[in-house]
């Protein structure tokens, strides 16, 4: 049953814009299905004349007609609405309400303005005798517009993806079954129209419950007219022909690298790459329409794929209106999709998205790169594909809003592609990478080849042009000597000395000498390799812990550095200060390390000017290296490819690479191609084929043992986090499952403005995360990236808190550069963290973890277990302490006490009196650092405590920095203090400044004056109220303090 609605016109609408007009359009909704008309600009009596049709599933549904006013930059305004139950139309004469004016009503009855205007509608209900007619969109003037919504009005069915592995007989059986089901259903529907109304469309859901196969998924549903079906078959064949044409024109170029914005999706699926490509980008694929329905996208229009630039590029244009969000309205978007590569196995599509209607939309484009490559080998023998989606912002013009635009786009894309991944996983089975590559012994055993004899290795080694040519010349000269007669002595010759008699003879002798020298060099190398046995290949790892195993398979397109057009490459692996050296492949640009004859270096090529020996690899295995077990999982491994120049010459680098174990899962490293960096490597697009395995050989108490060791260095107990907390931490930063959280701290990240968030510390990374009004800031870097950690003295801008400044090594941590405050001339990033609730614990933990990762094992053994407190804070030599001169100070309290000055100063000693006073004034969890000499006659300490509930209902926390110094005449003391409040309203708007001036007045008496000031960090209309509340609280607190001190030294008072 189909409900047809014709939106004719409207009159006397409300003016919603300042110009006295509106930009109205009509939005219609029935159940889950939605449509909208075009927008009529600047009109209160618009005319549309558009017709729509809905599939009725339940007579209890209501048709909701809403008139909206389009707003370019904000959410659209509501004008009025109308609700028409479908049952009214069903009960009406001829199942039609006719063409009638309907009054628009406000959203709620309490609205003051109830005059919203009227709208002219034609509403009718039609019943058909076949399911095909029922599913057809309305075939009227607007049929083309309705056709793009036809699939969206269908309920998303559950799908099963069987790939291309089904046999023809299986496919035929499924098609026959499908035909029977449809025929049976159509027959049933004719006789049971009433059941459609009373069972809420059971028949429709019955057909949707059947899973779709791969061939069905790439086609539209069968319930459509013959003409449309013919057009789709033609379109599908056109896409297949285009892919075939792209494959024939492919010249074997490299796969485009991921875009700089980051990875949105990296997942492998049990499907062949061509099938996954068709599923995502074929015009006939149902996946695109299902995704649009899931995300609320409307008016989806997919242009045809066309060849441009003389057939060099394949391109199409897609337009749609994205769903509205909490912050933005529905926006029109244009996508330009271009195939960068399609060779039948690898597909790369670059999508450029423009949203001109958004603010600053003309200044940027969002670019997405879809890369489909063959996935890992599956035990079942099925084909798999790996899909990587990366993104970046392409700014066409310079704008000050660049950071905000990037942040908003990053969050929006993340949410959108989470839905994309969920829907794709419902249609195509994801590959479980955890089970792949886990059996290391089985994988490495598959790399074994038959070993070769020494004679065969010698023949392969000496079978080259130089040796053959020298042997032939030698035989020729020998034959000449045997046939020639002895020459007479002439010139400077004498018996036993025969000199060349012409320039030609001199030239020939020179060639012979050079050739013999080269051959002797080959022989010397070979004999040297035969004498020196032993290599890094095959050496077993020692100890228990994290075991790293690397299998070197092959290399491609290595740079040539000599005139022969080849090189003599070998690879040096470095991890945690340990090195492993591969064999040398002579005269190879595409070396194979899995069984070819080769030399294996013993010493590191970095150690130049020292003799190095090489041995022959006659084992016949792939190059397999094991690193000694490590206590903590490694963060990265460096590899460098060198060209061998001889045992005494410095090696030439052919390229280098870095493997990051934190950003790459272990399953992905089980079989990976590594692109090399460097001028030579990038020019030749050099790559290495590796298989890397990392596993822990110890028991299940590894994390607990590591935390116990770190507790000794930090000096504070570290609690073991729950699996749920560790899982959330791993998901937040995209970390591998072996990473575990050690500690986290609330702090501020200082950039242009302080940003409050949490600092997370693990065994391998230090990360920061903040979420401010939906704008998320997230980054992390490795402990090995850190060059220096410094503590900067508190300043006014740091809200009285010391600052931890972390400086990274040059060129490191560039993925986290958006969180850095500065970048120096040498390219080193500097991160500023401040306002820690417990600064000393945070500083000690960061320092201990950094030392544990950056020091070599020998240096770690020299570190004492118990580390002293953090070093004294550093302040600038010029200027006053913490900028107190910039704050207006007024006298808050003064008193004369009948006790000596030194007795009163015990209040700041950290002893019994100090703790007793803080307890009396309602300070809980009081902690402090000892007084430390900062510079001449200046001592400094940090204190921290929490307010009791009777002092502050919010039970906030206080971090304070105190400085103590003598008066100018050294006959008294000045104690200055800056207090920062956390967890109380407006606590981040100000800092409290106190100054205690203690002077002796008479014998065994002292005079105390307390001065007070507030440094406002932000402006607020409540300044007077806040200051009044603080003054009252401080005065009461000081009275209690002075009373307790006096009672302590004067008994009975």
UniProtKB/TrEMBL annotation:
Domain C2: 1-102, 525-674
Protein name: C2 and GRAM domain-containing protein
Biased composition (Low complexity): 156-169
Organism: Tetracentron sinense (Spur-leaf)
Region (Disordered) location: 155-183
Membrane topology value: Single-pass membrane protein
Tagged with keyword Transmembrane helix: yes
Alphabetized Pfam families for the sequence: C2, GRAM, VASt
Keywords per UniProt: Membrane, Transmembrane, Transmembrane helix
Record has Transmembrane helix as a keyword: yes
Source organism superkingdom: Eukaryota
InterPro entries, A to Z: At1g03370/At5g50170-like, C2_dom, C2_domain_sf, GRAM, PH-like_dom_sf, VASt
Localization: Membrane
Domain VASt residue range list: 260-432, 888-1053
Cellular component GO terms, alphabetical: membrane
């Amino acid at each position: 049953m189909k409900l047809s609605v014709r939106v004719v016109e409207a009159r006397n609408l409300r003016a919603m814009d300042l110009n006295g007009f509106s930009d109205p359009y009509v939005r219609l909704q029935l159940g889950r299905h939605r449509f909208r008309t075009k927008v009529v600009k600047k009109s209160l009596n618009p005319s549309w004349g558009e017709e729509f049709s809905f599939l009725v599933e339940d007579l209890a549904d209501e048709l909701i007609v809403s008139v909206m006013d389009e707003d370019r930059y904000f959410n659209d305004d509501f004008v009025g609405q109308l609700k028409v139950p479908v049952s009214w139309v069903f009960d009406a004469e001829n199942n039609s309400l006719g063409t009638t004016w309907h009054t628009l009503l406000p959203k709620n009855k309490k609205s003051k303005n109830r005059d919203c205007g009227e709208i002219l509608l034609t509403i009718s209900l039609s019943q058909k005798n076949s399911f095909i007619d029922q599913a057809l969109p309305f075939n009227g003037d607007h049929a083309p517009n309705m056709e793009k919504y036809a699939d969206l009005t269908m309920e998303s069915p559950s799908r099963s993806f069987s790939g291309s592995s089904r046999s023809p007989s299986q496919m035929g059986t499924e098609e026959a079954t499908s035909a029977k089901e449809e025929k049976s259903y159509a027959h049933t529907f004719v006789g049971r129209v009433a059941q459609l109304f009373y069972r809420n469309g059971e028949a429709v859901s019955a057909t949707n419950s059947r899973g779709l196969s791969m061939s069905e998924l790439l086609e539209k549903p069968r319930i459509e007219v013959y003409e449309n079906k013919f057009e789709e078959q033609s379109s599908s064949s056109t896409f297949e022909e285009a892919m075939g044409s792209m494959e024939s024109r492919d010249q074997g170029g490299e796969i485009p690298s991921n875009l700089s914005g980051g990875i949105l999706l990296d997942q492998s699926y049990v499907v062949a790459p061509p099938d996954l490509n068709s599923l995502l980008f074929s015009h006939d694929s149902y996946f695109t329409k299902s995704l649009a329905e899931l995300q609320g996208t409307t008016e989806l229009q997919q242009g045809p794929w066309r060849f441009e630039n003389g057939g060099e590029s394949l391109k199409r244009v897609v337009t749609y209106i994205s769903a509205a969000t909490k912050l933005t309205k529905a926006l029109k978007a244009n996508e330009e999709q271009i195939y960068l590569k399609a060779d039948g196995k690898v597909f790369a599509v670059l999508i450029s998205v423009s949203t001109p209607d958004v603010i600053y939309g003309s200044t940027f484009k969002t670019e997405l790169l879809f890369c489909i490559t063959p996935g890992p080998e599956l035990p079942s023998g099925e084909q798999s594909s790996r899909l990587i989606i990366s993104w970046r912002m392409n700014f066409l013009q310079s704008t000050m809003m660049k950071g905000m635009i990037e942040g908003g786009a990053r969050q929006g894309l993340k949410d959108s592609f989470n839905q994309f991944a969920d829907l794709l996983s419902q249609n195509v089975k994801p590959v479980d990478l955890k089970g792949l590559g886990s059996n290391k012994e089985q994988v490495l055993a598959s790399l074994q080849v038959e070993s070769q004899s020494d004679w065969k290795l010698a023949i392969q080694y000496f079978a080259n042009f130089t040796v053959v040519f020298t042997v032939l010349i030698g035989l020729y000269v020998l034959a000449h000597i045997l046939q020639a007669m002895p020459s007479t002595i002439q010139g400077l010759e004498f018996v036993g000395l025969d000199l060349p008699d012409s320039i030609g003879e001199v030239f020939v002798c020179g060639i012979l000498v050079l050739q013999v020298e080269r051959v002797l060099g080959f022989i010397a190398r070979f004999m040297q390799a035969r004498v020196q046995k032993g290599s890094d290949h095959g050496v077993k790892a020692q100890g228990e812990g994290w075991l790293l195993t690397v299998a070197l398979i092959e290399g491609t397109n290595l740079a040539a550095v000599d005139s022969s057009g080849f090189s003599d490459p070998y690879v040096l692996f470095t991890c945690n200060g340990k090195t492993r050296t591969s064999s040398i492949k002579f005269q190879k640009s595409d070396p194979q390390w899995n069984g070819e004859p080769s030399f294996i270096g013993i010493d590191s090529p970095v150690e130049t000017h020292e003799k190095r020996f090489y041995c022959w690899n006659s084992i016949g295995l792939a190059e397999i290296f094991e690193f000694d077990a490590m206590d903590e999982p490694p963060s990265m491994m460096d590899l460098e490819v060198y060209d061998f120049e001889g045992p005494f010459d410095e090696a030439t680098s052919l390229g280098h690479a870095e493997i990051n174990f934190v950003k790459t899962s272990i399953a992905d490293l089980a079989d990976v191609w590594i692109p090399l960096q460097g001028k030579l490597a990038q020019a030749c697009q050099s790559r290495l084929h590796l298989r890397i395995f990392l596993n822990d050989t110890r028991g299940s108490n590894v994390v607990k043992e590591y935390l116990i060791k770190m507790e000794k260095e930090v000096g504070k107990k570290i609690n073991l986090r729950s699996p749920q907390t560790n899982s959330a931490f791993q998901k937040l930063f995209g970390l591998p499952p072996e990473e575990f959280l050690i500690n986290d701290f609330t702090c501020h990240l200082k950039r242009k403005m302080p940003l409050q968030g949490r600092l997370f510390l693990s065994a391998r990374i230090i990360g920061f995360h903040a979420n401010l009004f939906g704008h998320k800031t997230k980054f992390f870097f490795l402990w090995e990236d850190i060059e220096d950690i410094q503590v900067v003295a508190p300043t006014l801008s740091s809200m009285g808190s010391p600052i931890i400044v972390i400086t990274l090594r040059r060129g490191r941590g560039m993925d986290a550069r958006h969180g850095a405050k500065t970048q120096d001339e040498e390219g080193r990033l500097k991160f500023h963290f401040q306002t820690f609730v417990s600064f000393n614990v945070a500083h000690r933990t960061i320092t201990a973890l950094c030392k544990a990762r950056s020091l070599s094992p020998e240096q770690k053994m020299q570190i004492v277990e118990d580390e002293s407190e953090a070093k004294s804070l550093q302040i600038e030599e010029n200027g006053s302490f913490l900028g107190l001169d910039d704050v207006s100070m007024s006298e808050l309290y003064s008193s004369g006490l009948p006790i000596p000055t030194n007795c009163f100063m015990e209040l700041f000693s950290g002893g019994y009196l100090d703790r007793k006073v803080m307890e009396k004034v309602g300070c809980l969890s009081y902690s402090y650092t000892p007084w430390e000499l900062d510079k001449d006659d200046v001592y400094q300490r940090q204190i921290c405590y929490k307010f009791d509930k009777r002092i502050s209902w919010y039970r906030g926390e206080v971090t304070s920095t105190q400085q103590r110094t003598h008066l100018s005449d050294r006959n008294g003391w000045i104690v200055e203090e800056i207090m920062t409040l956390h967890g109380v309203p407006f606590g981040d708007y100000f800092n409290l400044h106190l100054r205690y001036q203690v002077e002796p007045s008479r014998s065994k008496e002292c005079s105390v004056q307390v001065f007070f000031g507030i440094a406002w960090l932000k402006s607020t209309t409540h300044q007077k109220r806040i200051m009044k509340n603080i003054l009252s609280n401080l005065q009461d607190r000081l009275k209690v303090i002075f009373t307790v001190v006096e009672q302590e030294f004067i008994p009975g008072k």
